[in-house]
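Proteins fold reproducibly. Next comes a concrete instance:

***
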Amino acid sequence: MLKSVLTAFQLRSTMSIFVSQFNPLLGKNEWVLQDENYDYHQEIARSSYADMLHDTERNQKYFKALKKAIEQRRRMNEPVNVLDIGTGTGLLSMMAAKCGADSITACEAFTPMAECAKKVIKRNGFEDKIKLIPKRSTELTVGEGKDMLQKANILVTEVFDTELIGEGALGTYYHALQYLLEPNCSVVPHSARVYVQLAQCPLGRNWNEIQPITIDKTKSISVPKEMHNCSGALYLHDLQLNQLHQSKFQLITDPITVFCFDFSDKEKLVTDKNLNSAEPFNAKSLAHITANSSGTIDTLFMWWDLDMDKEGEILLSCAPYWAHPEKKEVQWRDHWMQAIYYPSKYITVEAGEEVSLTSCHDEYSWWFDVSTKKEPQESISDVLPVCSCGIHLTYGRNRLGMLNDPVRNQVYVNELKKVINKDTVCLSIGDGSLIPLIAAKLGAKKVFAVETHKHNHQIIESFIKSNNAEGVITLLDKIPTKQQFDLMKVDIAIGEPSFNSCLLPWHNLHFWYILSELSSTLACYPNKMKIFGMAMQFRDLSKIRSAVKTCEGFCLEEFDSMIEDSSLRVDRNIEAEVLWEYLGKALSEPLEIASFDLSSIFKENKVYKEHTLTFTRTGTCNGIAFWVEFQYGNVTISTGITNSEEKASDGYVTWDKHTRQGVHLLNQPIDATSNGKFAVTLTFHPKSGQINIEF
């Protein structure tokens, strides 16, 4: 979702305000009218509560572990006083009430969610059993007349993310154990383990650093030395590893436990009992693992699991499919995924060789590195490393993958080779693109490259120097004026195109807007952009927007109403998603919705297209996927289906892994029958830079 700048002028005190919002097609800010509580509703609509509530395994195992903890306290003839930190909808507190807890204190710092929890708790008849405090747990007080009458002897909380500790779980547990809980209390979940598995994954490597591009047998684009072995590569890359086929990677070692956390013992959560020290939660471990196969370690897969009870009888695992203890029933979840980390240096090992894995964490983050006796590493930093090459601060993982995509790069080389010669002057338009280097290597006389973003500019400048192309490529820090452009004597405009500000696939039509200001006759590559749509049955993606209704026997309709109300106020009907991570079946053929000739200027004030998607496969249609295709001469690069022939007989789609597609998730899924139809309309206003797709 595009962010509004802070400055806003109020139009009506209780209804709407004008805010400055960036228009990605026009490439500039403009004033738009929005609900005065837009940010408030956006935060609600974008919360991941619904995704968690659809996580059946999570819910059931929390319920089971909480029931067990309460029964154990009962057998000890103790009163059961439960504290629920970050209650959200109040679900865990209601579970505690249903299991017979004597007192329950729930805290929730997110005000709209606290108000919602109050309604949900009342709806389910537990308002007299659950005390809801709209505060952070670190603000709670204990004693007569305070937030909690006495300390709790059971803590239940869900304060985890993909990194386990990224939401501040360590600090939250430590504070609760010290100030809010009795000694020898029960904690649900009780403990956690973090796992790492070393692998070779060319796709992962392409998401991590820019690779050389081969032009022909004698020419290539080299990567600047300073962009190799960057410690900034250690940053988290979270994704759905369950959708990464095993043909895409080679496992070099078995999974290994690198850290264990006992959430019931505060002394084990800190490495420095002086919490005023700089890094009280920082810790490091060293493990030695034997390589099962030969290969290059360039990727570290990471995940975690929870022992929900002290005895370890109730396990909640986030392991990927190949390592999951319950392989036949791997629960889909989007709020806890797996993660990829990258070593600072890729290391080649032989089967049977010992590998040293160093694992580090602070209060919120992880970083890892590997070494062998043959290839020792410098001591890994005790604090989270930062990027020194600029790549990891400037390019997202998807963008790096796009720059390294051999299919794309081969199209650029082959097609530009047909139109570039020693007399050709090129204008390159885009952000952080290596196409200017390709044009220079193909022998262009001159290449003007527009790089308006400071960090992109610096990176491409490094590539130019590394490839001795200073005499051919001139970097421009802003789009040239018409007068400046005319003096350049440009023969052809080139691009991928890709812009930092673009979220939806067609936002890259900004390429055409820049061209239209400069020339009405200039040849360009790509020369066409087409928008496609296709009816889909997503196995899981629709859950992030679908109503919960009931969860473990509790009515959550008030929560559904809150999310629906906020979504209607702020959500666009199409959002950007990386669809390869979400299994989906095509229920129709791809439908061309619009085509844009990038070498001409639109003369219409408005373009209106009516289309009908025809179902070619039976199923439940819960979404419409959108993408664009760019045409370079007679060759096409797709940001959606990588190859229409790759659709299996059962309809499952192979998506481009380096771009985000657009997706419209239906509020009410529809039964798709063969030859059934679904209407789609597109409206394009060239002057205002608005493309609207309605259903």
Remarks:
- Confidence is low (pLDDT under 50) at residues 1-14.
- Residues 56-75 form the longest helix (20 residues).
- The chain has five domains: 4-36, 50-191, 192-394, 406-525, 528-539+583-694.
